[in-house]
Amino acid sequence: MAEEVVVDAGGWKQTGKDLFAGAAGGIAQVLLGKPALLSYPQLYASGAFAGLSNAYLSGPIEHVRIRLQTQPHGAGRLYTGPLDCVRKLAKHGALLRGQTVTLLREAQAYGVWFLTFEYLMRRHSRTTNTARSDIPAPMIALYGGLAGEALWLSSYPFDVVKSKTQSDGFLAGERRRYKSMRDCFAQTWREEGGMRGFWKGVGPTMVRALPVSAGTFIV
Question: What is the pLDDT of residue 76?
């Protein structure tokens, strides 16, 4: 077993080294095909970097999805389709609205996702004295599902703020409720009962997360 790396919370230099090592280790494993046993901080860092990369696609795509889902029906419809929505958002410089909180959500979510799955797989292998390749498929699916639950539990408040920010007004003359990501956090905390406001809708999300994440890892 590789020696675990302990991160000093106050040492930014050590944290930077861990982030770089995690990313470099993951890239080397993909490019060279050589298995590398990463430490838990490195696993989190690798997942976080993957999430940051994904955010540049998921942010604008989810923004367009949210606009299409929340627009009025009938004569009050704002967009004729996805491309029309992209065009109007870009015209007003709003396509990347909510991108900062999307980066935070994806980094945290993917970091916790991969870390949790690897921890459960290693623990199973260690406690049962079973090679990783011999872990039964149902257990892999279970661990993948639990990792999906951990993903959303660790990042759901960011997702709530992202959705609120991306459904806020942006057209000329349209009321804009939130001035920034920070303002959205503050208003949600103040007006919706503190932390409770950041967990609305988490139930259906958790129900969906387990089978989706289980399928991701088992396939």
Answer: 84
